Amino acid sequence: MDSAAQNDSCGPFEGPEKLLEIWFAPSPDQLPDASSATDGKFGLRKVPKPVWEEMLDIVKCKILSYVEGEEIDAYLLSESSFFVSPHRLILKTCGTTLNLLGLPRILEIARQHASLCSVYRCFYSRKAFMFPERQYGPHRDWRAEVEYLDAIFPNGAAYTVGKVNGDHWLLYMTSPGEDMFAMTAPNSPAPGEIPLPEADEASGAGELEASEFADFTKQDYTIEILMTQLSPSARAKFNHASALEAVEHNPRQHALDLSSAIGISDIFPPQLTTLDAYSFSPCGYSSNALLKWRDGTGEGPAQSGEGYYTIHVTPEDGWSYASFECNVPLPSLPTSQPSKIPDLKTLIRRVVNIFQPGRLTLTLFISSEDNANAEEEGGETAVETAQRAFKAALMTSKALSGVCGARTSGEGDGEKEFQGTYRRTDKINYEFGGYDLAFASFELRP
Q: Which residues form a coiled coil (predicted)?
């Protein structure tokens, strides 16, 4: 990331991001203006870009580039990413940004520009900071962040998952369907609430015919791979000292070329992907990608089929960090067809093969309706399946060598393939209100 953009750029840069996700309805087709939408521009996607820019000024970050998809608008930021769907937005920021301070303004924007006066669900999460003492405002301490959110939402719950004195993941979430409203600003009158359906009335997206993804259209699914202690060879690819002129002349083209050279462009099938990337000077990298993961994308609010992934890299020695996040539901079984969406195990291998971390944390956060059905039928839940995939991807001998769809660190430069294997240091399955979590931490074996 661009450390120079931070007030304290002379010190270490905080790679782990703050992730805020706000839902104003269970699905796009349940928004008030869904039936009158043209070109997918309804709900939050009607908000003009300058309005979002003003909100991001509060957060202390800037828009670098923008991709307009069929169903999602993806903004690449000076500090991470911002995704806007008609019914939901995701603000992910790193460094010393003031992510939560943008929340009151987001709620005002939703009410003023999209007639969305009520929040369906809100999620805030982050990995433990490397340098918490360098944060500002409520982000200095998890307790302060929780208190800030509790002052806005009447029904939130906070969790710490993992070792308090080691790798852990922090989550704040609200529950739906309790006449919940969020204040637009402290001490301001509460906005009038519009009726929103209860959680169990959500219809989900249209089902696929003859497709392995038929059940996934109803899921909320997010996989995160949070990596530290990147290998020297992996870090070197994001240090642009030898190509500063190219980076400064055209940072987007440099990043796209780099994405192709090291395998980022091949994590998902290129024909399904619209990639937007940016190289920072003198080091760092960010990318957003929009993925058309099923047929019928953009055909209507009830036919959702576009997702995203996002990658951010801080390569400096001593605090190197890379993150991968994706909300496309992944199949549990591999496919031999390169044109298909990869299964979870293959995806993990492709990502880890690129960044070669010494330590990593994986989380799969998924709506729990299918898990409950699996338990009732005596089958395996999605989080149990995910834990098996985590283990198979990282603990199998030579699991990461020669991974299909991703170039190895040695291609073209005489280096050897990455053949590292990992040992698991933590494994937790957690049941929340309406969601289940698979959490696991790993470290590279000597």
A: none
| The two domains 18-174 and 221-399+417-444 share their CATH topology (first three levels equal) | yes
Using DSSP's 3-state secondary structure scheme, residue 358 falls into: strand
Please state, in angstroms and rounded to a whole number, the distance separating the CA atoms of residues 172 and 199: 18
Whether 14 is catalytic is: yes
Among candidate residues 85, 125, 259, 286, the one labeled active-site is: 286
> 18-174, superfamily in CATH?
S-adenosylmethionine decarboxylase (3.60.90.10)
d(CA 47, CA 326): 24
Is residue 94 among the annotated active site residues? Answer: yes
How confident is the model at residue 377, as a pLDDT? 53
Burial class (CB in 10 A: 0-12, 13-18, 19+), 403: buried
Any idea where the domains of the chain sit in the sequence? 18-174, 221-399+417-444
Task: Give the Cα separation of 345 and 408 in Å (integer).
Answer: 17
Q: Provide the pLDDT confidence category of residue 36 given band limits of 50, 70 and 90.
A: confident
The residue from 94, 117, 122, 283 that is catalytic is: 94
Which has more confidence, 81 or 187? Answer: 81
State yes or no: is 312 an active-site residue: yes
Question: Would you call 132 helix, strand, or coil by DSSP?
Answer: helix
pLDDT by residue (tens digit) across 333-353? Answer: 887 777 789 999 999 999 999
Phi/psi of residue 300, nearest 5 degrees: 165, 165
- 317, two tokens: 């020695």
Best CATH choice for the domain 221-399+417-444 from the list 3.40.920.10, 3.60.90.10, 3.90.700.10, 3.30.70.930: 3.60.90.10
In the sheet that holds 273-279, the strands lie side by side as: 273-279, 285-292, 306-314, 321-326, 221-230, 357-367, 435-444, 422-431
pLDDT for the residue 303: 67
Residue 35 appears among annotated catalytic residues: no
Distance, in Å, from the CA atom of 295 to the CA atom of 206, rounded to the nearest integer, reads 11
For the chain, how far is it from start to end, CA to CA, in angstroms? 29
C-alpha span between 187 and 117 (Å, rounded):
16
Catalytic residue flag (residue 80): yes
Query: 3, 78, 80, 367: which one is catalytic?
Result: 80
